[in-house]
Write a structure and sequence with these properties.
This protein is an alpha+beta fold. It has 13 helices and 23 strands. The protein has two domains: about 210 residues, no CATH class; about 230 residues, C8orf32 fold, CATH 3.10.620. The strands form seven sheets. The protein has a seven-stranded mixed beta sheet. β18 and β19 form a beta hairpin. α1 packs across α2.
């Protein structure tokens, strides 16, 4: 599909609110003509959205292509090598000073993936006045949302043929879902939801619109419709009388079946492992974007008290804070797909490290940490945070606790009673970036994950280090208990080490 809007119209639509508010009351004639022009431009947007959806519905009528899928990618098993056992370093006396210069550790560096644009509607959604407003109600991890939609006016399918699906799509586009979609987008913004959270929210919305268990195909079609109108790159498939939604992501997902379409991977988010072939529509909408799997939003779910813990540093006993996590957020993290950039599965930890701590946890933890590092030099600030992560948590192996590898988001390390090397490295990287504003790299060694911090050139820092793009990153290992910045755990074979930049 090839659609264009007048460039001037696009620019003016962005400027209209500011321009309109700046006019003087005496300019009534100008305002009237300008209002007429504004209505004209809005109508152009409406016509544009109607036209692309009509073409989309026409494409849905064309024969869908039979395509084999790929089995889910199994989560990678750790390289057969004994996990690194936590080691306690000798306590420094007196207060730490910079170490003498150490060794440059040779590591491979994984390239940082280029971020994808955020999915956005192909054109603004025009809200439709309703004499009587009806709602569907959605409950999603504590979010209680009332969304404008008269479910009794939604279309139904008489099967899953191309013609039936096209007819339903065209009916959904006639304005009856505009307010619903507008409310969905507003809920996403109000609660600062990441792409995956929004995808799952829309699944709940579709279920609320078609609550009967027999309407599973209508729910699937509505889910895909809302995703497509929100700007996500999706495809519809069918087999054995069922419809399925395929979602493109900017990363590779573990444990989800996928189809390769036009050199892109689309994941079966219905997660039906038994489905291995689908008839898939080739219909597309302009501007569609893959879902971003980096969870950089705060995901403001409803509050539900989780674990309450008191954490204290050994070397700096004044660093003591009581943390209370949100069980809704923990439950969401527990269901979040593991993913990695196509370059290397070891980038999986970057996705965890880029996720922020929630505001309630920041409010309970950060003032204590900030007070402990205020007035100290940059090196000692990092030393304080490093010792906190080294000594305030109990070490536990994933195999014995979870039955396999289970990385934590930083918030999960504060929630669960045990954590291992990768969890500590992820949390430490979060604290250093937030409280000292320094860049951090994660360093993967078979059986171990630790960190390295990029100090300003003006700060005297010794010890072991790596070099990434000409910049020096000094080793900081949250599992080498009591070790200082610059100390590498003994007997590490760094010939296999890989650095993953957290940015």
């Amino acid at each position: 599909m090839n659609h264009t809007l007048r460039p001037a119209a696009v620019a003016l639509m962005l400027l209209l609110p500011a321009w309109g508010n700046a006019q003087n009351d005496k300019q009534d004639d100008f305002r009237k003509s300008f209002a007429d022009f504004r209505r004209e431009i809005q109508e152009e947007y409406n016509n544009f959205l109607g036209e692309i959806n009509k073409e989309y519905a026409d494409f849905l009528k064309e024969a869908w292509k039979d395509m084999p899928g790929h089995k889910p990618l199994p989560e990678p098993k750790p390289i057969k090598e004994d996990p690194v056992v936590p080691i306690v370093a000798p306590e420094p006396t007196p207060r730490p000073q910079p170490l003498p210069d150490g060794n440059r550790i040779p590591v491979k560096v994984q390239p940082t993936p280029k971020p994808e644009p955020a999915p956005a509607p192909p054109a603004p959604i025009r809200e439709v006045p309703q004499p009587v407003v009806r709602y569907v109600k959605v409950h999603y991890f504590g979010i209680e949302a009332s969304l404008r939609c008269d479910a009794s006016q939604l279309p139904h399918l008489g099967g899953v043929s191309e013609q039936e699906v096209s007819r339903l799509w065209q009916t959904l586009c006639d304005g009856r879902t505009n307010n619903l979609l507008s409310d969905c987008l507003r809920t996403r913004t109000d609660h600062d939801l990441c792409d995956w959270a929004y995808v799952q929210l829309l699944r709940e919305v579709a279920a609320a619109c078609y609550p009967a268990a027999s309407l599973v195909n209508e729910r699937t079609a509505m889910h895909m419709f809302l995703l497509a109108q929100s700007g996500f790159r999706v495809r519809m498939g069918r087999t054995d009388g069922r419809l399925y939604t395929l979602l493109a992501t900017d990363s590779r997902l573990f444990k989800y079946s996928y189809w390769t379409i036009d050199n892109r991977e689309y994941y079966l988010i219905d997660n039906e492992a038994s489905v291995n072939r689908l008839y898939i529509s080739s219909a597309t909408l302009p501007g569609e974007q893959a879902a971003r799997m980096v969870n950089a939003q705060h995901n403001l779910f409803g509050s539900h008290t989780g674990t309450r813990r008191t954490l204290q540093s050994k070397r700096y006993p004044e660093v003591q804070a009581t943390i209370e996590t949100n069980q809704n957020l923990i439950d969401f993290f527990n269901r979040y797909p593991r993913s990695y950039a196509a370059v290397d599965y070891k980038t999986v930890w970057r996705y965890y490290a880029l996720t922020p701590l929630s505001e309630p946890v920041r409010r309970s933890l950060y003032p204590t940490l900030q007070k402990a590092i205020d007035g100290k030099g940059t090196l000692e600030k990092v030393e304080v945070l490093l010792n906190f992560v080294q000594t305030a948590f109990v070490y536990g192996y994933d195999d014995s606790i979870w039955g396999g590898d289970r990385p934590f988001f930083a918030e999960e390390t504060l929630h669960y009673p045990y954590s291992d090397c990768e969890d500590r490295a992820i949390l430490f990287s979060r604290l250093v970036r937030d409280l000292v504003q320094l860049d951090v790299a994660l360093i993967y060694h078979p059986g171990h994950l630790y960190a390295a911090v990029r100090f300003p050139s003006s700060v005297s820092v010794g010890g072991d280090y790596i070099v990434v793009d000409g910049a020096r990153y000094t080793i900081a290992d949250p599992t080498y208990i009591g070790a200082r910045v610059g100390m590498t755990m003994p007997k590490m074979d760094n010939s296999k080490a890989t650095a993953i930049l957290v940015r």
